């Protein structure tokens, strides 16, 4: 695995969490991160919306770069990770309109992003080939079937929680941030497992 994969995988959660933290500070009094969504920080009427728009764009690019170089993960899993990255770019490109309105394009790209970034671990597992270590290949634990399935189920459960809060209107921002943050962190966990396997 190229060393730049670690940089891209590490940059995604830094950009996302740093972006929503800084953008929230810039909002008028009354903005509540446990209630208001990440998308509201990049909406057309958000204050300094470029912060969250730039962060989302950066996260999308990071996922695309990580998918390109995370070779120990299966090709299908990497393709779905790349789809999630592309959809994240779509979320940035199609912001919510002013005054709390909705947008079909934004909703569609966000749904694809959450779905793909939640599901890709389920499709990333490999029994072999692994990372060469001496005369014996070893499969990084981050792409071993039990770990990958558990991660995918966990991430999709968080997406389900977020979806339920959209229906109930309670703690939407909190649920979204937990789900999105976990999805941004998992590629880094996998990349670190690959590096560890390579080093033995």
TrEMBL record:
Pfam families referenced in this protein's UniProt entry, alphabetically: DUF998
Residues spanning the membrane: 50-70, 79-98, 104-123, 143-162, 174-194
InterPro entries: DUF998
Keyword Transferase: no
Lineage: Bacteria, Bacillati, Actinomycetota, Actinomycetes, Micromonosporales
Keywords: Membrane, Transmembrane, Transmembrane helix
Superkingdom assignment: Bacteria
Annotated organism of origin: Virgisporangium aliadipatigenens
Protein name according to UniProt: Membrane protein
